[in-house]
Amino acid sequence: MKVAVACGGTGGHVFPGLATARELLRRGHEVTLWLTGRDTEQGARKDWEGPVVEVAARGLPSGLSWQSIQRLGSLARAVWRSRAIMRADTPDVLLAMGSYASVGSCGAARWLKIPFVLHEANVIPGRAVSLFARSAAAVAVGFEETQRHLQNGTLKVVGIPLREELTLARQTLPPRAAAGQGPFRLLVMGGSLGARRINEVAVAALGRLQKNGIAFTVTHLTGGEDEVNVRAAYREAGVTADVIAFSNAMAPLYHAADLAICRAGAATCAELTYFGVPALFVPYPLAAADHQTANARALEKRGAADVVAEANLTPEWLAGYLAQTFRQPERLARMREAMQKKGVPDATQALATLVEQAARTS
To answer: Which domains does the chain have, with CATH numbers?
Structure first.
């Protein structure tokens, strides 16, 4: 079959879409990536040897303003251009990974009566997925809680496809020591751009634990802007820490961690569940529709994570939380087990199969 995969925008859409595109390619289909041409897509594009279509798009508008009118015009042009491309080379099915980058291709597919599958990674669906869900041949979701927010007769929980480097690397990792055997192993991260509040509070809290003689190790992913300052702050606090801006080799870091302190983006949640890492989530407070809090609460409900609002994250609170957590390895073991149960090990295969079924039944 000819399959179009629209996964432009941020890495949270590009990488799951790219993983599914590769799986469909392995199954013998012709696959074309649909991107927007943004700089954030270029790294992923270098790893893709197949055809690529670029259709520029901008974010969905909110409210009424001159800017929102301009964005509506941009999206209308994206639909029109996508329609022309699809009429010239019609795919059998479209997979759209959400975000504004999906509007052009989904609008064109609906216009041309081409079946399409949507994927929503967060608990609370974005506006693009909400807009097209009723028309989709199927909607795949990462969290079962999303079923309360979308109307579609064929809605299936498939999980979130992960980067292949993570799934391949996990197969080669050695058995890990249980929490409580040796120093407590902490992973602090704020996503590719970092999270300044998490960075600052974590350093101060771990400095307090160090003074109290509590044994731990910490790997801290700071984001590019804070790396130098965080490294200096740890040094001043007398804490030995592995401080890096970001890492392309996350599998060993997840594998080693007893606990992660992090945001609650969909990709982060999926990677933590895949590796079974308990988490203290600090949701990004400005995320659209507060979707990170919804993601975090879904995992908290299963006993896999704890959640604290950024406004309540202080050095005193975090130091107390960590000291108590370090003394409860049995609770961490239960959280790890719950996190592993939430993980979907074959999300990429499940989504690829759903795409095939949508094409064959439409």
So the answer is: 2-160+345-361 (3.40.50.2000), 169-342 (3.40.50.2000)
Which amino acid type is present at position 345? P
* Interatomic CA distance for residues 32 and 6, integer angstroms: 9
DSSP secondary structure letter of residue 57: -
Enumerate residues 6+ apart whose C-beta is below 8 A from 287: 265, 293
Q: Find out whether 152 and 227 touch, Cβ atoms under 8 Å.
A: no
Record the pTM.
0.91
Q: Please name every residue paired with 185 in a beta bridge, in sequence order, or none if there are none.
A: 217
Starting at the edge strand found earlier in the chain, the sheet holding 242-244 runs 242-244, 216-221, 184-189, 259-262, 279-281, 305-307
User: For 190-241, how does the pLDDT look when each residue is reduced to its tens digit (9 = 90+)?
Assistant: 765 558 999 999 999 999 999 999 999 999 999 888 899 999 999 999 999 9
Distance CA 134, CA 104 (A): 16
Please state, in angstroms and as integers, the Cα–Cα distance from residue 212 to each residue in 183, 197, 260, 296, 321, following that order.
Answer: 14, 23, 21, 30, 14
Is residue 36 within 8 Å of 10, Cβ to Cβ? no
Q: How far apart are CA 274 and CA 330, in angstroms?
A: 20
CA distance 342 to 323: 26
